From TrEMBL:
A Gene Ontology biological process term: regulation of DNA-templated transcription
Residue numbers of 4-aspartylphosphate PTMs: 52
One example GO MF annotation: transcription cis-regulatory region binding
UniProt name for this protein: DNA-binding response regulator
Keywords: DNA-binding, Phosphoprotein, Transcription, Transcription regulation, Two-component regulatory system
Key word Oxidoreductase present: no
SUPFAM superfamilies per UniProt: CheY-like
Segments of the chain annotated as binding DNA: 125-226
One Pfam family per UniProt: Response_reg
Domain of life, source organism: Bacteria
Any one GO CC term of the record: cytosol
Residues of the OmpR/PhoB-type domain: 125-226
Domain Response regulatory residues, every copy: 3-116
């Protein structure tokens, strides 16, 4: 049974979508905002995503962009935005199909079936072969400068989030939300000490400047910049 991720902030529509897809034999998980969508995407590894664009927090465009950093799974945008320009934007941004609300349930199922038929069996990107780093998701480890390093689940998710956002600052609050599932921002010290542990795993001196791939940005958060 294929697992589908439905990202929809309207609770009534979310329930209706789950019912329609469930009756067709699909297992569904439901996210009502962008941050929850990314957490479920990582945890559930769905076969397809049904994505609304108007979401609280991270909007659908940002969810789509981050999804494409992680996987090539089919994405069906389900939106009330009807202009051709919006549909073109969605397809160019990486969506595989675009269905306008209100929609016919049978058309929705037909599009889902078509996308699943065309999808490849192995879609998740586990390798980041840049700057001497490769992530190995099946072993929760990383190959760094030619040597494999075993990581805890937290360390793996932390490194993964930073690498996906290479060159961009990821705030402490964002890391707490994405790595620790703590959207209220509680426990900021956890991030600091986890980064210190990760630096030790990578054998990077804490006071290093040029050699440190994990950059601390004072008052904001952290950035992965790779080795120099």
């Amino acid at each position: 049974m294929s697992c589908l991720l439905v990202v929809e902030d309207d609770p009534d529509l979310g329930i209706a979508l789950r019912a329609v897809l469930g009756q067709a034999g699909y297992e569904t998980v439901l996210a009502d905002d962008g941050h929850a969508a990314l957490r479920l995407l990582f945890a559930e590894r769905p076969a397809l995503m049904v994505l609304d664009l108007m979401l609280p927090g991270l909007d659908g465009w940002e969810v789509l962009d981050r999804t494409r950093d992680m996987t090539d799974l089919p994405v069906l945008i389900l939106s009330g935005r009807t202009s051709p320009a919006e549909r073109v934007r969605g397809l160019r941004a990486g969506a595989d199909d675009y269905l306008i609300k209100p929609f016919d349930s049978q058309e929705l199922l037909a599009r889902v079936e078509a996308l699943l038929r065309r999808s490849r069996p192995e879609q998740w990107r586990g390798d980041y072969v840049e700057s001497g780093l490769r992530m190995v998701p099946e072993r929760r480890s990383a190959v760094w400068q030619g040597r494999e390093i075993r990581l805890s689940d937290i360390e793996y998710r932390l490194l993964q989030v930073l690498v996906r956002n290479r060159g961009r600052v990821v705030t402490t609050e964002q890391l707490l939300d994405l790595v620790w599932d703590s959207p209220d921002g509680a426990g900021r010290e956890r991030v600091k000490f986890a980064v210190l542990r990760l630096r030790r795993r990578l054998a990077v001196p804490e006071a290093s400047g040029a050699e440190d791939p994990l950059e601390s940005v004072r008052g904001l958060g952290y950035r992965y910049r790779g080795p120099h």
